[in-house]
Structures are given as C-alpha cells and as structure tokens.
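User: I'm curious what two different proteins look like when written out as structure tokens. Can you demonstrate?

Assistant: Sure. I'll show them one after the other, since each token string lines up with its own sequence. Here's the first protein:
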Amino acid sequence: MSVSSPTFYLYGEAPKAAAPDFLHLEPLDHRSRPAEWHIGAHRHDDLHHVFMLLGGAGEMRAEGGVCRALAPCLVLVPAREVHSFSFIPDTAGSVLTISDVFLEGLCRTDGELRAVFGSARVLATGQETPAMVGYFDRLGRELAWHAPGHAVAVKASLLQILVTALRLECQVAAPASLESNDGRLVARLREQIEARFRLHEPIGAYAASLGVSVSRLRLACRTQGCGAPLDLLNARRMLEAKRALLYGAASVGEIAHALGYEDVSYFVRLFRQMEGVSPSRFRKKSKEFLLF
C-alpha cells in the first residue's frame, strides 16, 4: 500500500498525539456500518488495534498482503502499518485500540508481549473464544465506570487479551492441558481431525485410530472444555465450509458432500444453527461486499 495513505487518530478523526494511557473499546460496526463496511487504506502513528470478530467475515489488506478473517478470530494491526478493511454486512465484534506508550509500559513487565503486534495478521480464537469474549466484556465494563481498583482491573483484562493472543500466535496450550492425559488425547484428536475432516468417517473411526473407545474420547473432550468430539469435527468442517462459500464456486450440495455430509439438508440446518444464517445467505452477503 502507498505510504501516502491518510493518517488518522481513530478512523475518520484528525491526527493528534495519543495520551500515554489511551485505551479505547468500541463496537466494530460503530465506524464500519456508516462506511458501508469498507474502511479505506490508512494508518495510525501511535495506536495499535485488536479486532475481536464474533460473527461475519472480512478481508484486511495490509503491507504484508491480504488477510482473510472468518469469525471467531482476532485481527491484529500494529501502529504505523497501512491497512484497509472490507467486511460483509453486519459483521459483529469489537475494536480495541491501545496507545504505543501504554503498550510499552505493559511490555516492560513481559517483553514477549511485543510479539503480539509484530505484524498485521489474523488469529483464529478457536476454543479460546468464550474466554476472550469474557475479557473484552470485563474490559468494556471497567472502561465505562471508575470503581475502586479501576486502573488495575483495566490492565488485568488487557493483559489477559494480549497474553491469549500471544499464546494463540505461538500455538501454545495452557501447561495443565499439555501435562494431562486428557489434554494430550484431545491434541491428538485435533491433529486427526485436521488431517481427515473431509473423509466420510464417524467419530468411532477417530477413536479407533487413537486406540481408545468413543466414551473415553468423549470424557477427554468434556474434561478439556471442548464439548463433544463431534463438536470439534463439525466446527472444523464448518470453517472449511465458510471458506468454500466465501472463496469458491462449488454449490452448497457439493460443499456438503465434500465435507462428509451425505444429507445436504442436515448440513444446511447445522450451518444455520452454528452460523445464524443459511449457507446460501452467507455466500450472498460475502460475494456482494468482499473485495478479491
């Protein structure tokens, strides 16, 4: 992107120096909806962004290329990086803005946090989504009032967000999960799902390949807070279905069969249940508004 792209404070606002303790949180649609979901190329000299997408999808064009974002995910934008966005209508989420000085103060506690804003990129939140939503909600409440311990509570919630982003980037699970038999079993199941989710296989086939019973696999997933093994398989298939709908030309039926769903109507019902819209509607909205 051209270095001549406009510079803003917050998007659409004239440039000015950010206060050392500047921290701002707002709904994603606050600026995206009036702009018809297209945010033009721009940069911020001393402000970093963390977007939390909870519904919908979009594209970010940054100096490193094009990043495609499918909710739920984080979109990280460092200060001084020229970037633009194109979201499908009604994409839902939040935008967290952090001043350079505020971030540097946090990094003095743990320098590893600087890696969070090493480049503009997208991180799928996966099973960390509920926790991340909680961190954003708590931060929003703290920013809206000044109860005792306000400053510490704000920093605590912000640190939770940044640490979770750092761990997602490094693909490092919590130590307790890595050390437990259940954690290792679920990690192996995720590897199997990644390799085989397109095959027409029941959960029993996954259990057999891992050398355990289906009930043992269910117990491991439950203790690790992952729902059921079928939930993990369906979530991975739905992610691939959204990619195919957004960026491919296959029919809904072809996508369903390619992902192991013999009953197309069941696939459509499951997609609507998990995403809130039908596959056809999801595709229509994306094709109308995404830039390719």
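Here's a second, unrelated protein for contrast:
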Amino acid sequence: MRLLLVEDSIRLQRSLTLGLRKSGYAVDVIDDGRDALFQALAVDYDVIILDIMIPSLDGLSVLEELRAQGKKTHVLLLTARDTVEDRVKGLQMGADDYLIKPFAFDELLARVQTLCRRSYFQKSPRIEIQDLVINLATQGVSFHDHPIELLPREFRLLEYLALRRGETVSRPEIEARLYDEKMEVMSNVIDSTICQLRKKLAQAGSAAVIHTKRGMGYCIEE
C-alpha cells in the first residue's frame, strides 16, 4: 500500500517512515504544505498522513483543497491540538481520522490499516479465500489455522491482490502501490515475490490462489 507522509519534524518524519516501511508500506515523504498538495493531487495514494502545522500551507488548507478538487483519498490528520473544536473542525473539513500528538506508533499503524481497508470497501480485517485466512490487522496468514510466515513485502502483495480479488492487477499497478518512488524496482522483483508467495502457500498445503494472466498481470479470483 502506498502512503504519503506530510510532516515537517525531521525526528518524527524519520521514525514514522522507518516504522511504516518495516511494516511493508511504500512511503513518500514531504515536509511542505504546497508540495504536499501537488503530490497528493498527482499520485493516487491509499492513505495520506497529514500534519496540520506544516510550512507554506497548513494541513487543514491542504485537506480543504484536496476535497474541493474531488480527491477522495483517506486522510489521517496529525496534530498537537487536542480540543474538541479542533477535532470537529478537521473532521467536518473532510478528514477521515484524527490522531493527537504524542501518540504510539502501534495506534497510528492500526489507524492506517483501517483506512487502507476502507479504500477497498473491506470492513472486516479478515479475508477468507477457500481455507486461507488473511488477517489485515495482525498481518498474519494461516491455512487451516496453521500460520504461514511471510515477509512484510510478501504480505503487502498478498493483501493488495486479496483486496482487489476478482480483478487482474498489472505489474505497473503493483509497482506503484508497493514500492517507494525513489526505490529502483528490478524487472523481476515482482515475479520473484509472487514465486516466493506461491511457494510458501503451497508448502502450507494451500491450493493455488494467485493466478497469472499472461500479458496482463496477476489476480486472486473471487
């Protein structure tokens, strides 16, 4: 899943970026409001994590302009303002969630996961495909209650295909969702990840769920 983090505190920016990337997310980072607005309008993100107090254009103004231009990306506001009035104002302007500083990273991660699910109209954290269970909240995968150990990037790829089950997802779409903009994507990295996923699922006894549509991409059927 691809996230935009808009935060001007270098220390917080680095810690959040590190934690989110370790969790398998692709993260673009910006510290300026005007640049953030341009980037958010140009790129299709799953979630925007938006600090309110940022240079050149504050977060609420960025949010207001995004909604005015019809951008429906889910937005999680970060702020040190903890009054009810401030929270209500942000939500009324189109924010999807609100997190007050200081906060625990695990809480931010849980809120990001929830907003990502909403982007694909998936309310339940559990996706069941035959006897394969994908838990989006715990990032766990099991087959007949036996856990399958996946690397963060492997899980995110399986998650993305599962959220879009019934659709064929092209390689460029996967690259755009799962890899950071500045990260060079080797020509075979997606094929390699798919291969590892299939191998681990097969070792657990799960029937093949990831199908290759030659010349088009990959899909998990309904």
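A detail about the second structure: The chain is about 40% helix and 20% strand.
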